[in-house]
Amino acid sequence: MKSENQKGNISHKVVEIRRVCKVGKGGKTLSFRALVVVGNQRGIVGIGIGKAGEVLNAIKKGQYKAIQNRIQIPITRTKTIPHRSEACFGAAHVMLRPAAPGSGVIAGGAGRAVLELAGIKNILAKQLRSKNKINNARATLLALNNLQFITTTAKLRGLTLERFTGRKLTQDIFDTQKSDSLAKQSLISKKN
């Protein structure tokens, strides 16, 4: 089940609906538990769990909690993650690796829903140990939360990007920008 929300272009996906039961003095009380993932497909994603007597109320509660628990993740220009990441939640262990453009989302279960709603188009993911959808979704969110761009890491260490990588990146960028601007000027002068 997937739907669009008008404010902020947030879409949500119901990953799992389970019928759960609470045993009390008077007998069993049945209710429903829904695992919901929300995201804007541009780097913001969150998960939430809702419990209610009816399925629709459980989904609404889960969606509300997921909107409260959203995180911002870094995505590269090729719609993948900047580096490899691993995370554990409970018995679930998730491994994420960046992939080449055109690879697609190679993941299964709850992790796939989280990655798609985050806006990641090329990634390799593997769920190890547990098959529990809630723990796998939370482990995937933790792995995405651990990601950082190289520029952020360089700033935290107090280094320039050139010294951190050992390459002259800015010179190459300036050269390409100069050649692009010279090409545009020559096109403008030819038109005039």
Automatic annotation (TrEMBL):
GO cellular component: chloroplast; small ribosomal subunit
Pfam family name, one: Ribosomal_S5_C
Domain S5 DRBM: from-to ranges: 10-73
GO molecular function: rRNA binding; structural constituent of ribosome
Compartments (UniProt record): Plastid, Chloroplast
Gene Ontology terms: biological process: translation
Major subcellular location class: plastid
Parts of the chain that traverse the membrane: none
UniProt remark on domains: The N-terminal domain interacts with the head of the 30S subunit; the C-terminal domain interacts with the body and contacts protein S4. The interaction surface between S4 and S5 is involved in control of translational fidelity.
Family designation: Belongs to the universal ribosomal protein uS5 family.
Subunit structure comment from the entry: Part of the 30S ribosomal subunit. Contacts protein S4.
Protein name: Small ribosomal subunit protein uS5c
Organism of this sequence: Vischeria stellata
Gene for this chain: rps5
